[in-house]
Amino acid sequence: MNNKFNPNNYKNLADDSAMIQEAVDVASATGGTVVIPRLNERTGECMWNIDRAIRLHSGSVICLDNCILRQADGIFDNIFINSNHGTPLGFTREGRQYDIKIYGLGNALLDGGNHNGFTEFTQKGEDKKPMFYNCIFNFLNTERICIENVRIVNQRYWGMVFHYCAHSRISNIDFYAPATVPNQDGIDLRTGCNHFIIENITGTTGDDTVALTCLKSRFDEAIAPAQLDDAIHHVTIRNVCATTSYSLVRLLNHYGKKLHNIIIENIMESAERDVAQERGKDNPPLDEKTAIQRNGATVRIGENHYFGDGKKATPEDTYNITVRNVKGRMRMGIKANCALSNALFDNIQVFGDGGTGVYFGEGEVKNITVKNIGYSLVHKPKPNDDNRAENHWNGSPGKLDPVPDRKVCAVYFKETDAQNIIFDNIHASDKLTAVFGGNGNVTMKATNIVRESESVPIFDPDLKVRKMSVDEF
CA-CA distance, 30 to 12, in Å (whole number)? Predict the structure, then answer.
């Protein structure tokens, strides 16, 4: 490997960002790989302090060789960004960039460092900057991105964000951000992202671990002449084992934007505490803060929020969603709000102090198949879980006092217009208040309903089901 692609060859420059940027610019002429080593020869430290974003070109390949890159104190900028981002060229078809790869060897670490104080809540007025520039990675109008084998800690906002990007893969990423500041998501696909594979994601995030949010974008007007697809579609998310008090996977769209053809599979909550396997005083969890977290909804689809002027999502906007193999002690396994059609939910397994398998919130859902909901034999829901208290938001519904008539069901409808819903193989815990509960306009068929105790009714008395068919085994 030619030494000119090693940032240490440019240690005469003023700072670490300049050294890495020079290596990136030189490598771009020949397609060489920039290797960032552990040792920074300019400072003599095993640390690269990034005080302005490294701008990557089409064809850039960055190898993080057991190194640590840290956002400098007080800055408001990314670590990596595509070079056309923020320029007029970056909003055109001609300015679309391609084939950017960042991969880690050994223990490659990207560190947000000390937070700079910029949040969505502290930035005010006309000078408010886009929060995307507080992320570790930030890509716009780029295709064939590959990011793999890195650890991200203490992100100042989202770990990585993509706008109008396509045909990319994000894999083997570990996060550690235990909710020290607002909105510490892991991976965010925003408006116009398609054909992504996101896989093998672990760790702890302060907010949603993987989020697909197709909303109004600050880039919509500028990028409109390029006539790029503004939907999120053809995304596979698999093998996520993490903890957060929000969602491991979140899907959201409004304003007529489409979100469709999504596969979500093998999603597991990794919170340590479980009534079936409590750690004793002699063997405490390594991280008390993350150990007590419990997912609000392991997979969350839709939201009765973030819209105005009648631009709420419809079932024609959100469709062809497959979710399978979801496991955890979450408050809700899958939560579907607002709008959804033509979906499959398969194999939702609740253990410990988990709550509801599938929760349908306010809105309209059509043509949904739900199969294989199960509860562990030691299932014992939290005494203050109550399906009736859930609202549009994903976090805890509040510090509720336990009430004798609380409702915790395998499937719950909250003021839902649910049409043509098929249920098969529901194995209900004896700690539930009913197999099916809630209210709304519900048309459903259910087969293979198994209850651990006959004291658990199939239907809560408050649930009114139209055109119902149930076979019990």
Answer: 23
